[in-house]
Structures are given as structure tokens and as C-alpha cells.
Amino acid sequence: MAQIRVANLTFGYEGGYDSIFENVSFSVDTDWKLGFIGRNGKGKTTFLNLLLGKYEYQGVISTSTVFDYFPYQITEVQMAECCGDFLEELRPGCELWRVICELEQLHLEADVLYRPFGTLSHGERTKVMLAVLFSGENRFLLIDEPTNHLDQASREIVKSYLSRKKGFILVSHDRDLLDACIDHVLVLNRHSIEVQSGNFSSWWENKERMDHFHEMENEKHRKEIQKLQKAADRTRNWADQNERTKIGFDPAKEHDRCISTRAYIGAKTKKMQSRVRQLETRISDEIEQKEGLLQDIERPVDLKLMPLSHHKEVLIRAKDYSLAYPSADVKNAAAGSGQGLHEVLRDFHFELRQGERVFLQGENGCGKSSFIKAVLAHTKEYGGENRLDSGSGGQTVVSGNGSPAAMLEQGALTTASGLIISYVNQDTSGLRGDLKEFCRKRNLEESLLKAILRQLDMDRVQFDKGMETYSEGQKKKVLIAASLLTQAHLYIWDEPLNYIDVFSRMQIEDLILHYQPSMLLVEHDVRFREKIATRVVEMKKGI
Hints:
By secondary structure, the protein is an alpha/beta fold. Helix content is about 35%, strand content about 25%. It has helices spanning about 45-50, 75-80, 85-90, 95-105, 120-135, 150-165, 175-180, 200-245, 260-295, 370-375, 435-440, 445-455, 470-485, 500-515, 525-530; strands at about 5-10, 20-30, 35-40, 60, 65-70, 140-145, 170, 185-190, 195, 315-325, 340-355, 355-360, 385-390, 395-400, 405-415, 420-425, 490-495, 520, 535-540. About 35% of the residues are buried.
């Protein structure tokens, strides 16, 4: 067992407004299963890169261990190659037989190594990279968001796999995964870093208990400050009144006073003023202690939502509904010939009523996102990126760029007339430029969008930067904030919580439970789904 010691670590990006870390010190053991928790943009991935030696910093990071990082960067050339051909490039000294043993624990056949990496699903790619990562020894592993874009079945496999391993830092916002896989937490608080034994739930329970204690202590300090302030004001008034009596007096009323009394009054006033200064010093000390107690308390601000009420009870209805993609090697599949089609939905029945929050659940490729795109295409008031064209044998959903048929549909899919939808796409790659331009394109009030982003704990310094420089979590917050600003009958969110920090997830949960909007969601966070879903619809490939 070795240790990683961090002493007086200070780091900030060149041209940045402030430091990411400032005089940070802590130590961790390399046989721990360490969960890394913190708000988006607070420096979790940056710290992993510092461990890897990618940036220069002030302070000391000392360890005898070697680090390895997930996910591996896969080049375009490697995407076209079979996985088994470039294992050595990912991890020098990697042995094929060890990778195959790890794949077996991940419920994946070895033949996946002999298929081009680009043809693998998100889940298969994640499992292959994890198998490579854990195929060696004597390395401390840095695992950054391993379950994003994975379906529930794949998440369960990865969760079970990681729970049997040790010697890693796991960056994740999935509370269920953290509880199952870690025995220590490394937490980036607002103004400090702490290391604590236990999983996420035990840390959160301790945090709430400590926050409550600090709140009570803060209330005591506040009352003490008020008492001291009143005493200081009272003594200051006495001193002022006494000072005014130094010069001039009425001999008839104050027959026992003479000119020499002035020195006595001055000395008495000076003593009172000295007491005022002492009281003010105590007030300052109390305020400093009060502020120190509250600096790390998370105060999630209540978000607001403005859902619309629709005159129809049923907002979406699908009956005997089928969706298929034309195969890439069949040029005229878009004509609806029925040949060369990849079917993702078959005879699907679905209904969403006003007030429901329905989650679509199923393995990757079962048609969840495709069904959402079809719903958007059927909704004129959405005005999104898809539209419907007529075609033989059914209707064809055509992409907004005018490309040939993207999906062929059959059966009935109807949406309520006049239905207004607010949509959060799982893809953030299109976010470019600054927030002002983003608001102009979407007809949003810029000040309100920024206010919501501040409530989601995004720093103001980010508002002047291009969105392409944002972390993935910050990009997702922009999309969610835009959706919250949009008055709609139905909110459709496709994997909205990828990369979103735990505290923001809790804010969003409270928001949805308070305003009870009608929603259609795809999201694999078990805790989130258990808390807000009114119904879960299981989807299977081709069904």
C-alpha cells in the first residue's frame, strides 16, 4: 500500500480569473476505493490531470505509484481497427489473456476484441476500456464518469464489476453507483477539501448533521452579535452624552461642580470609548467565526418552472407503432420498400396523460431516443430539428438538414393539437459561442437564463466565455436552464443528467416534485427515477 500526498497545491488555468485549487493539502491510500464528489466546474477532472502530470502547478504531489486514466483517448485510426490490435497502444504491457479474463467479469464475449472499435455500442466500448484498465497491477486508476450514456443493464454490470475492485478514484454523480463501489470519499466543498471514510450516503448523512450543527452555532453567533451590537451602541451613546457635558455648566443647577470636573469627565468618556472598541473587536471575531461555519454549507436555491396546462387529457398516443432505419448499404431503402431496414420499434403501444412523468427504460438501441425524435417530428409547435414527409407504406421522419429519410414509421402516433414541447437533447456538441448568442437564437431572456445558471451554481466568470470551453456538466446546465425558461405543456428530456453534479440533481428533483410538470424522460439515474417517476415504460429492441 502506498500513499498519495498533496501539500499546498495551488493551480489555476492560464488567463483564468481565479485559482481552481489554493493551498490544498490531504492524503489518500492507493488501495482505497475512492469516490470523488463536487460541483460541476470545481476541478475534479482537472485534479486527475494534475495527477497525470499534464499541467504545471505550485505545491507538492508526491507518490510512488503510477496512474492510468479512463476513458482512453481513441484515435480515428483506432476506431477503424479491431480492439485487440491496439491494446498495447492504450496500455503499455497489456496482455490479451488478462483483458479477456476481465471481459468475462463484465459479461462480454472475447470476440468483441476482433471487431472494429467504431462498430461497438457505448456499453461495449466502456467495458473494453475498463477491462484494459484493470488488466494490470501496481497502478492507481483514475476513472472519470464511466456510466454516462450506458443503459440500465450495462450500468448494473459496471457497478457490480467496480464493487469487486480497489485502488481507484471514481468520479461520478450517480449516487447508486457511488454507494455500491466506494469505501472513502474525496469531496470538493465550496472552500475546502475533505477526505472521509464511507460511501456517498454515509457522507451525505454526516454532512447534513454537520450542516445542521453549524446552522445552530451560526444562530447562536448571530444572537451574540446582536447583543454585543446593542451593548456597543448603548455604551457609545453614554460616551457621547458624557463628552458633551465637559464644557459649560449651570452653576445654579450644578452647584457642586467646578472647572476641574472637566478632567474627570474626559477620563470617564475615554474609558467608555475604550469599552466600545473592545465590544466592536468581539463583534468582528464573532462575525468571522459565523462566516467560517457557513462557508462549506450547500444552499441549493429553489428553481422555478412555468408549465402550461393543456385542454386535452392525453398528450401523446401511439398504437401499433413501428420505427425503422434504412440500412446504410441500401440506397433506396427510404422509398419504403421494406428491404434493408433496421427495425428499432415494432407494434409499440404508448400513452402519456397530462400530469404524468413517464420514464422510457431499456437497453441501448431499443428505440428510446428514436421514439422521442418521432414525437418531436409530429409536433408542429416544437419547431425542432425534425419534420414529417409522406411516403409510401407510412410516413418518413426527415432530418432538418434535408438529408434522405432518417426513419420510416408505420402505425399511429398522435400528439395533442397545439402541444408545446420543451426539449433537452442528450447531445451537447452543438453548443458554440457565448450565452448572449444562445439566448438570441432561442428567443430567451438572457438575464433570466444567467439567473438560473447561477442558481445551479455556475460561476459568473463562465458567462463571458464561449460555451465550447465549458465542461460537459456546464453545457448540460445551459440546456436544462433553457428548458426551464420555456413555458410548455410537455417537457421531454433525453438523458438530462449526464455529467450533472449531485447537488444540482437534487435541486432538479425538488423542482419537478413541486411543480409536477408533464414529462417524458430517458434517464438511467436510479435514485432520480425512483423519486420522480409516476410510471416507467419498459422498451425492448424491435418491440
